[in-house]
Amino acid sequence: MWVLLGIAVIVAGFALRLNTLLVVALSALVTGLAAGLNPVDVLAAFGKAFNDARYVSVVYLVLPVIGILERHGLQQRARTAVSALKGATVGRLLIGYLLFRQATAALGLTSIAGPAQTVRPLVAPMAQAAAERQGADPDSDRVPALAAATDNIGLFFGEDIFIAIGSILLMKGVLEGFGIEVEPLHLAIWAIPTAICATLIHGSRLWRFDRKLKRESAAATEVQP
Amino acid sequence: MIGLNFVYAVGGAAFLAFALLSASDRGNPKRWGNAAFYGLLATSFWAGDLLGDIGNGVLVLGLVAVAGFKLMGRGTRATTTDTEREAEAKARGNRVFLPALIIPVVALVGTLAFKYIPAVFDSKQVTLVGLTLGVLLALAACYAWFRPRPLTPLAEGVRLMDSVGWAAVLPQMLASLGAVFALAGVGEVVGGIAQGIIPDGSRLGAVAVYALGMAGFTMVMGNAFAAFPVMFAGVGMPVLVGIWSGDPIKVAAIGMLAGFCGTLMTPMAANFNLVPAALLELKDQNAVIKAQIPTAVPLLLANIALLYLVSFL
User: Which in A11, A134, B229, B268 has the greatest CB count within 10 A?
Assistant: First the structure.
């Protein structure tokens, strides 16, 4: 049971706002010591695993390509593509953005959109403007929070369809540890059913959000004739 | 034979370039921290197999020291302004997406085709080789189209790398933490607790404990990367694959996504949940999490149903 102390270290480290790499290293040390290993053996085990897991960091090779494309207007072009989603309602706009985010993440373009790249400058204000036309409270957190949530959901349940994303490579490595050789493509294919469920579940929530706003504004007009 | 050695050679070269560009960036007061961090990663890619286990451990301590003592800063190399980019975006149109699309297309084609040329390509690493070749081809296309100075793509790469900073190695660190957890038997302890909860002879119970454990553990650790090795070793392999003869590929793939449902519900995943709330200046820092829970919970149930329905075919 003592080996679970490493998990407590992670929680405590987060609560104390320590640097996450430091917390991870401390957690490894505490876990190893609790299991009766000596510190040098823990260091060696961590070092070996780090070396074996280098493939996870290969994804950063794409940054020079994305960087030079950004220099030549990639993000601005992505914004144009998003603003072409001229849905009259917040629900339709965010459903369009959800599909855009899932599709691009599935192609490995995870960093062309995001909270800083698209949500703050574009999706949140567009959604808020649409919601206000539908009678929503302009001061509420509800619509911008929903825009940020839609971005995360589109990213998470799109990126695993791309065969060279970190999580797919991690699964490949863990399965190899059990002596199971697997093609990343086969793991990626099994991300598709969940991606479809995510589209349906979140999409229907967004669709119902429009109806909810309509009901709310109808109720509000009844109160103040 | 072209395999991981080729991938790591290119990766090491990229990080060495990042290190040299950081070291020569006089405007960044923390340039030596950045240079040390990227230099250590270049060393890892190029010489990791020669360093020995303890040597690699010391290398990790170096990375942790640079991050822990906050020695990294943002580079100051000039890039284009927003106005210039708007003009470029107008002039280049949607063709600007094409070089980016070369990467997934080559990675996919490589995955499917390279296997049939085992004399040239290591058949176990075709995806990573395809990805690396895709990046090199996309870079070649960018050089041909934009005619930048030779170092410009690398400098733009450093700009993005700096914005990721020390968090770049977090996935690799969490994967390594998972390995230490496995060595220490955390998987067995968690698996023992989880298996104690599973009702005897219940396949649905086993699936539910696996998926809920993946999501719950992800919520504690803040990242599915750390939870996956533990829950897969603790419940996925011994119970779903071992006892119920599930397909390990489906159990792994859908289990990871059950973990992602946990990521949507935890403040520990600060970069996804708290940072956007701050960026959008929301009054409630947990507003994004609250907006995600009504999707995450049914999606987690959908993953349990999927695991139950497709893993044992």
Answer: B229
